[in-house]
Amino acid sequence: MDWKKAARRAAHWSLPAGLTVLSLGWTVYAVGEILSRQAPEALAYTVAGIYDAVWLYALAMETAHRRQGSKATLPATLGWLFLLTSVGVLFTHGLLYATAVVAVIGAVVPAASKATLIMAVEREATRISPAAQAQIDAVRSATRDQVAIGRAVTRAKADRQTTAAVLERDERKARGKAHKTRHKAVEKLTKLTAEHPVGNVPQEVPALFSDEDLARVLGQWSDGGVSPGVSPVSLQVSPVSPPPGLPAPQGGGHAPLDWPGLAQVAAVAGVDTPEPGEPLSEEQLTVVLRWLRHSDNPPLSYRKALAAYRAAGFSAKEERVRKAYAALIDAEDSQP
């Protein structure tokens, strides 16, 4: 037997064994001294020894039955009967020949011996093998891993939802601030117009410089100054955007749009063909975004798809387009 295992076993049984020996010795002394007042001393201590021998045998049989897991009615009954008798004898002996404190201590010793013996036997009877303990540890470890992963996934989902809510809140704040600024500007313009009326005010504001106009004007500058006959800033620049009747130009590098393909995609989806400039349902918006996304190879990103969406003449709030595009990407990713 391994000496470490033997040492652990000895430590496990040392306290119950010590208390049992102390209890038996004290009981022999107390019973013998009480009986010696009524009978010869040799006979008294012989009876006390027989009493303790029967009690010890009952304890041993009860311990053996408990370790085997079998029923031990008679040994258990005798053990409890002798325990109560010993407690009473030691308490009485302490009161007769010593003090009340000694009587209480003497009564506690057998009870403590019985309690520790029961605990030691129960632990010995429920001991499991190292292989079974290893399996239990593996199951507990796997369970803790699953719980930790589940908590991490839950926290990640919560962080994603929180971030999305914060971004939506910031966007709404920015829109509200812009709307408030425009409102204040309109109020101030209305107030100034009412306080300082001016005649011959043009009804239309001159068109602003586009990038092409700015490049054309800057290209006419010479190293020494402005070319003759050219003003660095004209009073009004004609708009360079295409007439309203013409389709908007496509983004640079993007293939021409396949309008019949849009009708085919709409027919497959079971919705009416979306028309530029008309309000679109959620299904029609998804059809347009799917058509634009796959109109080029590789598929367009969100920014390019949004630019193509605007260029094709369709209109919708950017937040709505972004959510529809995200739902489209999720649906495509979930497909096998």
Automatic annotation (TrEMBL):
Record carries keyword Transmembrane: yes
Superkingdom classification of source: Bacteria
TM stretches of this protein: 12-30, 42-60, 72-91, 97-121
Sorted UniProt keywords: Membrane, Transmembrane, Transmembrane helix
Protein name as annotated: DUF2637 domain-containing protein
Organism: Streptomyces plumbiresistens
The organism's taxonomic lineage, starting at the top: Bacteria, Bacillati, Actinomycetota, Actinomycetes, Kitasatosporales
